[in-house]
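**Sequence with structure:**
===
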Amino acid sequence: HLKEKPIAIKDSEYRPLFETLILCFRFLKQVCKENFKMGQHIYTFMPKFQLQLGFGLKIADTVMEMFRDNTKILQNLDVQQVDFFIFLITQYGTRARYLNFMQVLC
């Protein structure tokens, strides 16, 4: 599922980009809060988000907010997406973000 990280992003010349991406995902998280239509629109980018999970960009928080109480998105959720989060838990351990996401799904 996940490719190996080619560089230590946090400690490299890409640090400003890394920090900017974190801020972008924090912004998207806020946009999704109690805004179901915006959450549904952002959900169309879910495959791209999945590719970036596990790199410390706090995407799981954004995805969790996108799914929170949004029945239209939850109805479209497929087994592969849930399996992917289970894979992340087995790959990276029981990080609170991933466990909280699973809780939102239930």
